[in-house]
Amino acid sequence: MTIKEVCETHDITPDTLRYYERVGVIPTVNRTKGGIRDYSEEDVKWVENAICMRNAGVPVEMLIEYVKLFQEGDATLMARRDLLAEAREDVQAQLDKFQATLDRLNYKISRYEEALRTGVLSWNEETYKK
Amino acid sequence: MTIKEVCETHDITPDTLRYYERVGVIPTVNRTKGGIRDYSEEDVKWVENAICMRNAGVPVEMLIEYVKLFQEGDATLMARRDLLAEAREDVQAQLDKFQATLDRLNYKISRYEEALRTGVLSWNEETYKK
DNA sequence: ATACAGCTTGGAGTTAACTCCAAGTCAAGA
DNA sequence: TCTTGACTTGGAGTTAACTCCAAGCTGTAT
What we know:
DNA-binding, Multidrug-efflux Transporter Regulator, Chain: A, Domain 2, homodimer, 2 domains, mainly alpha
């Protein structure tokens, strides 16, 4: 699979993909004799994983560490589990914040909708109570 | 309320608060005759709103636009509602991605837990199926 | 064989959102 | 009054994560 194909099916740029490989967010991808990247099924799985993790703000640094541990083999199973657990805590905490923000936005929007519906502009303060 | 008090009760640095005011993420805060910031209840509400929105990745640019519209008065009610609705879409989309990442992390961690529990290291591929 | 579009690398540049700094002002305590 | 620590401003510096670039190689179509 060429870099172009991976990019098109995963909505990512070649530059980002090469950057991920360069810094170690994904393991090194095999090349053709000409030196062109040829992504295997497994490479693509790593790419998907990286994209998913990055979507939730998991730092590049953490992904690099995970790949490094993975390549060291079975002796690092616990360390990897711990790293993932840490990432999970971070993502969960972020998720909670996003939910709180969503609640606030919903509240504010509903107040705007009401004001626009009734024509009564009954507030000029930025209030929000949980 | 001094900048220090606001910072301590809201876990934010003075530099960030001054930056928010400077670029317009929050309206201008009143000063004492000596020129020192004196946050009102309403100022603090704006700060809380900014922190909440930034927690969910709502861009500074959007918050600036909102404050600007707010200060223009009732004529901008619809524009503000639309801006908030847009922010809500973005936050919801991000939230969904975070949830997907959390699901993936939970799956991976459960596989690690199993491997560590049984002593069977039964995979060496980065699989994940929804 | 010759275009020519697309790939390669190493390295430099960009962006958003802070974060720090220097030089100066202010205010409470000895 | 003097010291001392916190505040002020405008502007420069930092960081993470890309994103772009130049110079050169590849490989399919004419």
